[in-house]
Specification:
single chain; 453 residues; alpha+beta; Transferase(Phosphotransferase), domain 1; Protein Transport Mog1p, Chain A; 2 domains; 7-stranded antiparallel sheet; 6-stranded antiparallel sheet; 10 helices; 23 strands; 31% strand; elongated
Length: 453
C-alpha cells in the first residue's frame, strides 16, 4: 500500500498499524496546500458478495455520518472523507501529532490520585459529548486515547462503530449478522463480550484505565472475585475512600449498577475535587502567610549554621531550617548543596544553593563564556537574563542569571563565580521562577557569607 494514492488524492506514506479490523496508514493530502498529513483507515469487508456489499455500503455511509457529527468536537479527529474503492472501505481523518495514553501508563509505575482524577475528567468530558448522541465508542483503551503534543489535550480516537462494518455478513434470509465482537479484552465488560454493549460499557473501560493508572497494573493482572465477578484492585494501592467508591461503581460487574453515561460519571469525579473557590482562596491565603512568615524567620533572624570544608578551603553560613547535602561529586565538581524546607505537600521543587569547586586555568570572562555555552547546550529552553561583574569572597566575580525548563517547571538560576589560583568557585541559587524572589534575600545572605581561604 505504501505509495498508493487513494481516491486520486490521499498518498499513503507509512503503515501505522494493523489489526483484525483493517489497517491504518499515514498519508498526505495532495489536494490541500502544503500536503498536510492525515490518517487513512482501510477496512476490507469480510465478504465481497454483491448483496453484502450493497448493505455494507449503506451501513458505512451511516457510520460516516456519525463520525462527521462527532468530529465537530475539538477533541475528536475531524472526518475528512469516507471512500469506497475497489471493494475496500476507507475513512480519512485528521492526523493528531502526539502520543497514545499507553505511552504514559507504564507497567509498574503508579500515577498519583490527583493525576488520575484529572485524567478521568479529561476523558469523560469528551465521552460526555459522544454519549449525548447515544453513540457507544466500544473500544476505549489507552491506545485509542491520544495526547496532542501541541497543548497536551486528550483526543478520543478509533471508534468501534466503523469496525463493525468490516465484520458484518448477510445470511440466507437477508439478515445482517456480525462475526466479531468489537472491543479489547481487559477493557471490555461482560455485556459487550456478549454482543450487547451499553453506554455504560464505555464507563467500564474508562474505569479500568483509571485503575491501571493508579495501580500500575495491566488489566490482565487484576483478579476477579469468583463469587461476585467484581474486580479486585484496592489491595494494590492506598486510595481515598471516595475515589475508590467512584472507580468501583464505574467497573461494576452489572452494567445496571454503573453510571449510565459519561455525564453522571463526570459529575461524580468532579465532586472529588476541592468543593469551592472560596476554600481554595482561603487555603492560598493561609499558605501565603505561612510562606511569608517562614521567609521572615529565615531572613530576619540570624538563625544560621556554619558549613566549613577545609579540603576546599570554603566556609559559608546557611539557614538552620535548610537541609545540607554533602555531594563531593568529581564529575560535576559539586561539593555541597543546601535545600529549603518543603512549604507543603504540593511543593514539588525545593529551592537550593549549591557550591562547586572546579579546576580552571584562565580569565574570569573566559569562564563566563564557557558557562554560557554550557547552559545553552544542556539546559532546555535556556535564556540568559543577566550577566554582570560582582564580588564573591572579596574577589572579583562573574554573575549569570538564567532561566530554563525542568520537566513542566521553569527554573530561574543565579550563578556567581570567582577564581583563585587554578580553581573556580561557583555558588548557584536555583528556584522555580514564581518563587525566585521570595527566597532571593536568603540566597544573597548565603552567597555574601562565602569565605575562601
Amino acid at each position: 500500500m505504501i505509495g498508493t494514492i487513494i481516491d486520486k488524492r490521499y498518498h499513503i506514506i507509512q503503515n501505522l498499524g494493523q489489526g483484525g479490523f483493517g489497517t491504518t496508514f499515514l498519508a498526505k493530502d495532495t489536494k490541500r496546500p502544503g500536503n498536510p498529513l492525515c490518517v487513512v483507515k482501510q477496512f476490507t469487508p469480510a465478504s465481497t458478495d454483491p448483496a453484502t456489499l450493497i448493505i455494507l455500503k449503506r451501513l458505512f455511509e451511516q457510520e460516516a455520518v456519525t463520525l462527521e457529527m462527532l468530529g465537530k468536537h475539538d477533541q475528536i479527529p475531524q472526518l475528512l472523507a469516507h471512500i469506497e474503492e475497489y471493494q475496500e472501505f476507507y475513512i480519512v481523518q485528521e492526523y493528531i501529532k502526539g502520543n497514545d495514553l499507553s505511552d504514559e501508563l507504564i507497567s509498574g509505575q503508579k500515577m498519583s490520585e490527583s493525576d488520575v482524577i484529572q485524567l478521568l475528567i479529561e476523558i469523560l468530558e469528551v465521552l460526555e459529548f459522544v454519549h449525548k448522541y447515544k453513540v457507544i465508542h466500544r473500544d476505549i483503551k489507552p491506545d485509542n486515547i491520544r495526547r496532542r503534543h501541541l497543548d497536551n489535550t486528550i483526543f478520543l480516537i478509533d471508534f468501534g462503530a466503523v469496525k463493525e462494518v468490516r465484520t458484518q455478513l448477510v445470511n440466507k434470509q437477508g439478515q445482517i449478522t456480525s462475526t466479531v465482537i468489537i472491543g479489547t479484552p481487559g477493557y471490555m465488560p461482560l455485556e459487550q463480550q456478549r454482543g450487547k454493549p451499553q453506554l455504560s460499557s464505555d464507563i467500564y473501560a474508562v474505569g479500568i484505565i483509571a485503575i491501571q493508572a493508579i495501580t500500575g497494573l495491566l488489566p490482565d493482572k487484576l483478579e476477579e472475585d469468583i463469587k461476585t465477578g467484581e474486580i479486585i484492585w484496592r489491595k494494590y494501592v492506598n486510595v481515598s475512600p471516595k475515589l475508590g467508591t467512584v472507580l468501583d461503581k464505574m467497573v461494576s460487574y452489572d452494567f445496571r449498577k454503573r453510571y449510565p453515561t459519561a455525564k453522571e460519571a463526570l459529575q461524580a469525579v468532579k465532586k472529588l475535587l476541592p468543593q469551592s473557590l472560596d476554600w481554595k482562596l482561603l487555603l492560598g491565603l493561609v499558605m501565603t502567610i505561612f510562606i511569608s512568615l517562614t521567609i521572615l524567620v529565615i531572613t530576619k533572624k540570624d538563625d544560621f549554621n556554619v558549613y566549613e570544608n577545609s579540603q576546599y578551603g570554603i566556609k559559608v553560613r546557611y539557614p538552620k531550617t535548610w537541609e545540607r547535602q554533602d555531594l563531593e561529586n568529581p564529575i560535576t565538581a559539586e561539593v555541597v548543596t543546601f535545600i529549603s524546607p518543603k512549604q507543603s505537600d504540593k511543593d514539588n521543587f525545593q529551592e537550593k544553593v549549591t557550591i562547586s569547586v572546579d579546576k580552571f586555568s584562565g580569565r574570569l570572562d573566559d569562564w563566563q563564556k564557557s558557562s554560557i555555552q554550557e547552559i545553552n547546550n544542556t539546559v532546555s529552553g535556556a535564556k540568559i537574563v543577566d550577566k554582570s561583574v560582582t564580588n564573591l569572597a572579596n574577589k572579583e566575580a562573574s554573575k549569570l542569571v538564567f532561566t530554563g525548563k525542568n520537566g513542566k517547571d521553569i527554573l530561574k538560576n543565579m550563578q556567581v563565580v570567582t577564581l583563585k589560583g587554578d580553581q573556580a568557585y561557583t555558588i548557584t541559587y536555583t528556584a522555580k521562577i514564581d518563587n525566585y524572589d521570595q527566597f532571593l534575600e536568603t540566597a544573597d545572605k548565603m552567597i555574601n557569607s562565602l569565605e575562601i581561604d
